[in-house]
Amino acid sequence: xxxxxxxxxxxxxxxxxxxxxxxxxxxxxxxxxxxxxxxxxxxxxxxxxxxxxxxxxxxxxxxxxxxxxxxxxxxxxxxxxxxxxxxxxxxxxxxxxxxxxxxxxxxxxxxxxxxxxxxxxxxxxxxxxxxxxxxxxxxxxxxxxxxxxxxxxxxxxxxxxxxxxxxxxxxxxxxxxxxxxxxxxxxxxxxxxxxxxxxxxxxxxxxxxxxxxxxxxxxxxxxxxxxxxxxxxxxxxxxxx
Length: 241
Description:
alpha/beta; globular
């Protein structure tokens, strides 16, 4: 069991974020879990099971003030983080093409959460990150790969994940000089609520995806490459930018 390790995970209301939180708690991590839901029953039960390990708080990564408040809360309890996992994201429309009436406000909402959210969190917590494990993991997607681009829709999500990848390289370029690194992981096709309602289509359950993600983090966490490691969580295969 891991002792005295600290992690912050975003998007912990359900799905992959919740599954990662549970797995880290079982490994002995102290986990700072940020979710948008209030009175989340799962978190209440976990807090009872792990009373000194789990610190849950309300978090909207799409709002500057919410992220700042989260950072103040975390810093009041610890001066170091071994791991930040930026998991929070929204999917948005997956059907509209350039020939349709596109909701650009929705695209901006997806971008704000799914791209800027991870940058906000990394910025707000960079001091405890660099005092600790110097490791940022962001849940990206193959949808953010320009080299693998094949869709005719999904504007918001694809563009947000491509932007997340670029923002992550900028962070990595800076912190790499001090041993810091960013890992970008595509979790695979996961059964989830990403579309706003439950979608059982997918290759992996949230628990299986979380297991793959944590396995790759363990495998690659000490490797410092020139650019962020961008891989599939299930296979470890490198993805093209």
